[in-house]
Structure formats: structure tokens, C-alpha cells
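Researcher: Next entry in the queue.
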Amino acid sequence: MVSALMIFLISLAILGSIFPWASSVIQKKKDAKSVNDVYNFFQKLDYTIINIARNGGEESLELKVPGRITVYPESYPDLTLNNSILFEFQSKVSNVADSITWIPLNTPNSNTSAILGIDKPGVIFGKSTLEKNEIIVYYRLWFRELEDKTTGNIYKISLVTSGGKVINSTQGFFRIQRLSSAQTGNLIKTQVNIIV
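Model: Structure for this entry, 196 residues:
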């Protein structure tokens, strides 16, 4: 009877010491999946915005990772953030090095102006910062001008929000609508409304 009790207590002690380690490993696996889900979502968001800018219409998307979405319309005065969508969330892992600068993830060319047919209009950036025991991971989708070298025209997707204000949400819901397309000189700008 005493030996059975000893075996039970030793087993309980072993399980008690393994549980925190196993819990940490499971959380890191969940966070790694969330990091991949966010990057894949940003690729889909980029594709969807470009498709709606070209073809018109409206579409809704949902990001199922908890975090904060911020939409900076083209009219936002800070040129490092304007015309972009930012998502930040906490994680135990990151696929982007701890950095204060944005790292382009979907293209090596992150210049403000690029070439139509060669470069993408949307650039996905990432960065992360370590705070206490958590990593704050940031993804940003930014739209830039594309120049058509044959015609000299410049094309730009312009993100628009209600009232031209910066909008924030923690809901993960996006509604994307094409509003209009207009030409001023050689600049052809297509307005895409983002609702979160």
C-alpha cells in the first residue's frame, strides 16, 4: 500500500514538473500558427484590394487572430504610415526579427514608386519588438504608385476611410469597396474604401 502511494506521488510530481514545459510548447505552436495565419491573411488582403481596385465590387474578409487593426488613409500626413493597413498582436514567436525598421516580406523592392508589370502595388512589411515575456508582432500592407514605362501613366490604389480618419478595430472584420477611379494629368488613382 505504501509503495503504491509512493509511486502515485512520484508520478504526480513528474507530471507537475512536465506540465509547465508542455504548456509553453503548446502555446508556442499555437502562436506560430497565428503568425502564419496573419501573413497569409495579409497576402489575401493585398490580392483582394488589388482585384477590387481593378474590377470593382465589394468583398468582406475576416482575420481570426486577436489583435488591433489600424487603417491609415492616403490622406494621413505621416508618409511612413499613410495608405496602409497595420495589424499588431502579441505572440511567443515571430517570423520577423526584432527590429525597429519595417522589413519588406513579399518583395525586395519597397521604393515609394515602382514599375507596372514588374513590381507589386502592395508591399507587405513586418517587424517585431520584445516586451517583457511577449513579442509584439506588426504587419503592414502599404500601397504605392506604379509607373507604366510605355505610356508614362502612374497608377495608385488610394485607401479611403469614413471621414478620412485613421480607424482602429479589434474585431478582425474588413469590408472592401471600390469607390471611384479618376485621372489627374498622368496620375490614375483608384479609391478603395476600407471599413473595419
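Model: The chain has a mean pLDDT of 88.
Researcher: Noted, moving on.
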